[in-house]
Write a structure and sequence with these properties.
Length: 323
């Protein structure tokens, strides 16, 4: 009887959390680019980062949360991620033009999160191809119309003017190495990790890794699209690469030691939720009971971490029910 009651309660919650995840849901002069946009900083020779803000999307930060960047080669430029709006994409193009007059050959989008993808409109307007991993592209298509509506509501029509939904010009399935810009660039893909189709980009000349959704610096990793086992396997694979610096999805540039910090969070989260599942905890108790003191000062601990705890708990309970 208790099992049946638990099943009736949990299965609708699985669906509800799935819907929540689905809503979780940038010489080139750039006319109209935001003069207050952050400058690109050279983190290694020919590798640049434009850092986003902490917190959540709001009017103060104009949705500029995710990091973006670019790699300048002998034959051109690859841009990596693009910001939350057309305006952010314009600003990134303006920063590229400030640094070099070489042509932008490609925009690579690392994963399907709103703060990384919607600046693509500015690139596509200039005929610059946009590329995503196929599964990330499918996720974007499935949910990001909703993201765009939310951004328009929160940030307003002026901030989001020109921002539109789009389809990548090219998609790929497997990791690959590129000589497109005259320097070696590796596009890394390890299967479903922090999200379906999430990739990272490694500059072979400097060892700088653009980590996308795989690594955030002192910000709670968001598991709503992730598979923890696959994510940790991807982190293990990164440890075997000659990484000298990391441009994370969020937060300042870091050393390769960031891999261990994110791995510790995922490990402790899973371990704590196993304990709560075995203790027959109620879902309503989980966010408060799943505290992880090591990470309490990380950005979004009170929001993303609490949601992570609920998501992982429900997944574990679901797995028990279907065995």
């Amino acid at each position: 009887m208790q099992f049946a009651i638990r099943r009736r309660i949990l299965l609708p919650l699985v669906g509800a959390l799935g819907l929540a995840a689905a809503s979780g849901c940038a010489t080139l002069a750039a006319p109209g680019a935001d003069p207050t946009a952050p400058r690109a900083v050279e983190v290694a020779s020919g590798v640049y980062m434009v850092q986003g803000s902490s917190g959540e999307v709001d009017l103060a930060n104009q949705g500029r949360l995710g990091n973006a960047g670019f790699i300048v080669g002998d034959a051109g430029v690859i841009a990596i991620d693009s910001g939350t709006s057309y305006r952010h994409g314009q600003a990134l193009l303006a920063e590229i033009a400030r640094v070099t007059d070489k042509p932008v050959k490609l925009l690579l989008l690392t994963h399907a999160r709103q703060e990384f993808i919607f600046g693509a409109a500015a690139f596509r307007e200039r005929g610059i191809p946009v590329q995503m991993q196929r599964k990330a592209s499918r996720l974007m298509t499935a949910r990001c119309e909703g993201c765009l509506k939310t951004l328009n509501r929160v940030l307003g029509e002026e901030a989001m003017r020109g921002t539109v939904m789009f389809k990548p010009d090219t998609e790929f399935d497997a990791p690959y190495e590129s000589g497109l810009i005259g320097r070696p660039v590796r596009v890394l893909y390890y299967g479903h990790s922090s999200g379906p189709g999430d990739i990272a980009v490694l500059d072979g000349r400097t060892g700088v890794l653009f980590a996308g959704g795989l690594l955030d610096q002192r910000r709670i990793p968001d598991v709503q699209d992730g598979e923890i086992d696959g994510w940790r396997q991807a982190l293990q694979a990164l440890r075997g690469l000659p990484i000298r610096q990391v441009v994370p999805g969020h937060g300042p540039v870091a050393s390769a030691a960031l891999i261990d910090g994110v791995d510790r969070y995922l490990t402790q989260l899973e371990s704590r939720l196993i304990e709560l599942t075995r203790a027959d905890a109620a879902l309503s108790e989980v966010p408060d009971a799943a505290g992880l003191p090591e990470f309490k000062d990380w950005d979004q601990y009170q929001t993303i971490h609490r949601r992570n705890a609920s998501i992982v708990f429900v997944r574990m309970e679901r797995d028990l029910l279907v065995r």
